[in-house]
Amino acid sequence: MWYSISGSYEISLTKVAGSYPLIVSGLATLPFERQYIMKKLNLDETWRLCLSMWRWIAKEVENGTDASIDGMKKRWLAGHKMELGKDSERCFFCEYFKKRKKDGEYCFKHCPGRKIDKHFDCCNYEYHYSGRPVKFYNKLVSLNRKRCKNKK
Q1: So what's the pLDDT on residue 151?
Q2: DSSP 11
Q3: What pLDDT does 145 receive?
Q4: pLDDT for the residue 81
Q5: Would 6 be classed as within a structural domain?
Q6: Would you list the DSSP string of 12-48?
Q7: Which residues contact 53 (CB under 8 A, 6 or more apart)?
Q8: 1 located within any domain
Q9: Cβ atoms within 10 A of the Cβ of 23, count?
Q10: Could you read off the pLDDT tens digit of each residue along the chain, which spans 152 residues?
């Protein structure tokens, strides 16, 4: 499958299953026959992918899309030849947690957002991921800035 894209976009190469598909602003531009199987992501990969997906979703919302958040997540993941577990809500933070949880643990224990702000909650009314996706993306950006600052 080919995707056509115009305009200026950020380009990154990500090694997937032994080759390098070209990733441009959330959509793969080269055909790729093998499905990406989600591995156990490290924290930096989780943040990078989460921010990339939500940046694209925020731009889509600002451009007036009427697609659902879940539909946009599916489209972004498909464009990147990725799948997340069915119980991860198509969220990299949830996927990170689910690969590390023990029986009975609630998601906040390993949530990457909670590691930066103990009050972070993706369902918070102020920046709810589904109801206010642009504000949610902005919240993630602010958390990531704090995370990067703390790494120094």
Answers
A1: 81
A2: E
A3: 96
A4: 85
A5: no
A6: EE--BTTB--EEETTEE-S---SPP------HHHHHH
A7: 26, 73, 76, 77, 92
A8: no
A9: 21
A10: 333 333 333 333 344 444 444 444 444 443 433 344 456 778 899 899 999 999 999 999 999 999 999 889 989 988 988 877 665 567 888 877 777 776 666 676 778 999 999 999 998 999 999 999 999 999 999 999 999 998 87
Cβ proximity of 46 and 112 under 8 Å: yes
Q: What is the C-alpha separation between 49 and 44, in angstroms, rounded?
A: 9
> HSE on the CB side for 52, CA within 13 Å?
21
* Total structural domains within the chain: 1
Q: What span, in angstroms and rounded, lies between the C-alpha atoms of 91 and 115?
A: 16
Query: What is the predicted pLDDT for the residue at 111?
Result: 86
| Range 113-122 contact pairs with CB under 8 angstroms and sequence separation of 24 or more | 113/140, 113/143, 115/43, 115/147, 116/143, 116/144, 116/146, 116/147, 116/150, 117/143, 117/146, 122/91, 122/93
Q: Give the domain range for residue 128.
A: 11-151
Within-domain flag for 115: yes
Q: Which residues pair with 24 in a beta bridge?
A: 11, 27
Flag whether 54 is in a domain: yes
